[in-house]
Amino acid sequence: QPVLAVVGRPNVGKSTLVNRILGRREAVVQDIPGVTRDRVAYDALWSGRRFTVLDTGGWEPGLEGLPGAIAAQAEYAMTHADAVVVVVDATVGATSTDEAVAKVLRRSKKPVILVANKVDDERLLADTAALWSLGLGEPFPVSALHGRNSGDLLDAILAALPETPKENFGPTGGPRRVALVGKPNVGKSSLLNRLTGENRAVVDSVAGTTVDPVDSLVELDGQVWRFVDTAGLRKRVNFASGTEYYASLRTKAAIESAEVAIVLLDAAEPIAEQDLRVLSMVVDSGRACVLAFNKWDLVDEERRHQLDKELDRGLVRVPWAERVNVSALTGRSVRKLAPALRTALDSWDKRVSTGQLNSWLSDLVAATPPPVRGGKQPKILFATQAQTRPPTIVLFTSGFLEAGYRRFVERKFREEFGFVGSPVRISVRVRE
Ligand code: GDP
């Protein structure tokens, strides 16, 4: 999605303006001179269009001094954003720092909107006019604090940003939520970059900063998807030893906030313990799942045979997951991910009516009855799909059903009703 950067000196009201743009009231971070902040990205929505707001707040008065730091901020904004808002304090006028920023931005080919902030009443409009001197076009008077003109400003911002792709809403009312997970170095950030296009990989987050969980909206195959919690993926983070625990917590959190996970595996290497742990997290969470074997460009005939053998043993928990062989490097088959995600989510959402379920099940049980236990033949009395997301079948029985038979029922159920890419849970209630 398009990116808007907001730049300006400390104390001009940047954070307040960012909050206005985001439509929230509380100040996230105050503009206190000397406080170091990092670039922070937020999701904004206005008139049905989504964009990212990059709050380039970090400054470190010191070595190069404030003007240098803010000019560097502007440079960053210019290269990473689709449009730049530069905020100036109309009650103060253009300072030398503002001029340094303006000088950088005048070189920009991207649209620049000059915002004259703190124009709390009409009398300050004259001060606004003085800001023409910055050479950034007409100053846009607003009061971020009182909200004056902020609707007009948002309209101007939308006009300056490139068109956003049309959203395709899932049953939850937003783009479907996707977690991109896998062990380190499997190619997650490479794949994300491939999917979003290089110039969208914009967010730097530095350890120790409180950053909102940042998602990426990605258009694949004519549909917009929300890749959750991608802030950490966009930048190469060199994990020091001992942080694997946190990496795994992060993976878990991403899976849990998603509806479907793309589990990325390295096709060039043997399936590892760590891959299986990630897979288990996905299955246990009940999310839908697509397996993507990355680095397929490195796979030769021999490795391919080897992999076939590993799959039989390695993927016992997810025989139902669709597999896609991709290369983030070359882009191979990356387009196949969207149909696989759709299939998985269709199954995840799907409900089989109680009538259909029971008529199918009675035929199945008649042909292959559950194994006798303790001299007794357990009967399946009734079945119902109690839940979707993931599909959960409750079997009411007259006795214990062995795990093997439950797996058999699950497999046949998948075949009959076409459940692919989603866990199906079978729960048994024994009626005495
Ligand atoms: P992450 O830790 O999962 O985010 O992994 P990265 O995206 O940083 O990738 C790790 C390394 O694998 C980098 O050196 C990438 O260039 C490389 N890589 C990623 N995808 C591919 C691929 O499809 N083929 C090959 N040959 N290398 C890849």
TrEMBL record:
CDD domains with a match to the protein in the record: EngA1, EngA2
Binding site for GTP 2: 182-189, 229-233, 294-297
Pfam families: KH_dom-like, MMR_HSR1
Ranges where the EngA-type G domain occurs: 2-165, 176-349
Keywords: GTP-binding, Nucleotide-binding, Repeat, Ribosome biogenesis
Keyword GTP-binding in annotation: yes
InterPro entries reported in the protein's UniProt record: AAA+_ATPase, G_ENGA, GTP-bd, GTPase_Der, KH_dom-like, KH_dom-like_a/b, P-loop_NTPase, Small_GTP-bd
GO terms classed as biological process: ribosome biogenesis
Subunit structure: Associates with the 50S ribosomal subunit.
Entry-linked PANTHER family: GTPASE DER (PTHR43834:SF6)
Role this protein plays: GTPase that plays an essential role in the late steps of ribosome biogenesis.
Recorded family membership: Belongs to the TRAFAC class TrmE-Era-EngA-EngB-Septin-like GTPase superfamily. EngA (Der) GTPase family.
Protein name, entry field: GTPase Der
UniProt organism field: Actinokineospora iranica
